[in-house]
Amino acid sequence: MEIKNLRYFLAVAREENMSKAAEQLHVSQPTLSKTLKSLEEELGKKLFVRHSFSISLTDEGMLLRDRAQDLVAMSDKIEQEFNSLDDITGGYIYFGLAESYQIRYLAREIYKLKEKYPNFTYHITSGDTEQVTEKLDKGILDFAVLCETPDSNKYEYVKFPEADVWGAIMPSSHPLARKKSIRVSDLIGQPLFVSEQSWNNEIKAWAKDRFNELKLEGSFRLSYNGSVFARENLGILLTFKDLINTEGTDMVFKPLSPELKSELYLIWNKYQTFTPIAEKFLEQIKKAFK
């Protein structure tokens, strides 16, 4: 199975139109159709359903799309890594990042590295622990940032200089907005928004024996989306301080009580082989975070 054929397949899956995909790839439509037919014959499965003016994926096609995205990303990363082995002025680093205001520390170190090595390029993928560690394990990422203690059997890591403080975001008109801090008892009966990961870990540990009295209205992987729902009075968002800017808005942030904090970690695979620029970055950030 050739990477080029997978690129063709992904273009058609993305555009859902053969002619548009062919135009994007700068190939003829007959060439593209022949490639896709060959791919279906190679796999022994039908990948597309042809409609009058569009194309949709079969279940098998959706499975291939997910696998092909990782394979193409890995191919691109390998090519870039080898191209940068002799490049002493730059190279590529791939990061998978959790949402946190403490990411500013990482951004500062990237800025310093850019000043020393102007040809250095970085790629950012955002997601929760499951999403970023899956890509890290596959070798698609060089580093990941997590909001929970890493598995020391699988990863090396350094801890960020500061921890994130948890709180509740709600409209300033909400009855709880007048409180200095929010306790578990305040949240009983309130519809709550938070990531599923944090609901089953940090919030559960914080609420202790009253956790089962709390109501998860909906889970969000991105706090910004959760804040939009909170603004529309659908519930209270539990998230990190400074992740959502409430200054000058009709929203407020109130810290949880007792205080709840989450440490942030930069992790990488054990026994990982890095490119020269990634080695320089790791050496730099170990000194900065020490």
From TrEMBL:
Residue ranges of every copy of the HTH lysR-type domain listed in the record: 1-58
InterPro entries cross-referenced by the UniProt entry: HTH-type_LysR_regulators, LysR_HTH_N, LysR_subst-bd, WH-like_DNA-bd_sf, WH_DNA-bd_sf
GO cellular component, one term: cytosol
One GO molecular-function entry: DNA binding
Pfam families assigned: HTH_1, LysR_substrate
Keywords: DNA-binding, Transcription, Transcription regulation
Keyword set includes tRNA-binding: no
Family under the similarity heading: Belongs to the LysR transcriptional regulatory family.
PANTHER family per UniProt: HTH-TYPE TRANSCRIPTIONAL REGULATOR YBHD, NITROGEN ASSIMILATION TRANSCRIPTIONAL ACTIVATOR-RELATED
Protein name from the UniProt record: Transcriptional regulator LysR family
Organism: Butyrivibrio proteoclasticus (strain ATCC 51982 / DSM 14932 / B316) (Clostridium proteoclasticum)
Lineage: Bacteria, Bacillati, Bacillota, Clostridia, Lachnospirales
